[in-house]
Amino acid sequence: MIIFFLKFLLIASLIIITYQDYKDRMVWWFLFPVFAITAGYLHFIHAVEIVFILNLAINFLIVMICMSVGFLYARLKLKVSFLREAFGLGDLLFFIGLAGAFPTVSFIIVFAALLLSSLLTHFIIAKSSELDSVPLAGYASFFLTLTYITNWTGEFLNIYKI
C-alpha cells in the first residue's frame, strides 16, 4: 500500500511540475524534493544499498558534467548568465533529483531520451505558440511520467533492471 502511495505521489508531483513549468515557467520548490525522494526510494527498494549509492554518485557526476559543459557554453559562447538566461534553477533541481531515480545505465538512457524528447516537443510546440524559453523540467517531467506509467503497467520494460 505504501508503494502505491509513493507511486501516486511521484506521478502527481511530475504532473504538477509539467503543468506549472509549461504554464508559468515557475514550479513550487517543494515539488523537487518530493520528486527526488519518491523516485529515489522507488529505486532504492530495487537495489542493493552499496549499488544504489554507487549509482547515485555516478549519476550525479554525469549531471554535474553536463551542467559544467552547459555553464561553459553559456559563459564562453553565448556570453550570458547560466542560471538566469541559459538554464533554469528548476531544471537544475529536477536533474539533480533525477540522479537518484535510476540505476546508471537506465539513467543514461532515460536522461538522453528525455532531453531528445524535450527538444522535439519544443520544436513542435514552438511553431504553434509564442514560447520564448524552453520549459525543460516540464517536458522532462511529462516524458518521465510516461516512462514510469509504461514501466508499472507493462512487462516489457523494467527500468530498474537494465
Describe the structure.
This protein has helices at 2-24, 31-44, 49-78, 82-86, 89-98, 104-128, 136-153. The model has no long low-confidence stretch (mean pLDDT 92). Helix 1 (2-24) runs antiparallel to helix 2 and helix 6 crosses helix 7. It has one domain (2-153). It is globular, with a radius of gyration of 16 Å. Helix content is 77%, strand content 0%. The protein is mainly α and 162 residues long.
In short:
77% of the residues lie in helices and 0% in strands. The chain is mainly alpha-helical and 162 residues long.
Radius of gyration: 16 Å
Q: Can you summarize the main beta sheet? A: none
Low-confidence spans: none
Distance between the termini: 26 Å
Share in helix: over 70%
Count of helical stretches: 7
Q: List the helices and strands in order.
A: HHHHHHH
Structural class: mainly alpha
Keywords: Membrane, Transmembrane, Transmembrane helix
Transmembrane segments: 6-22, 27-44, 50-74, 86-116
Organism: Salegentibacter salinarum
Protein name: Prepilin type IV endopeptidase peptidase domain-containing protein
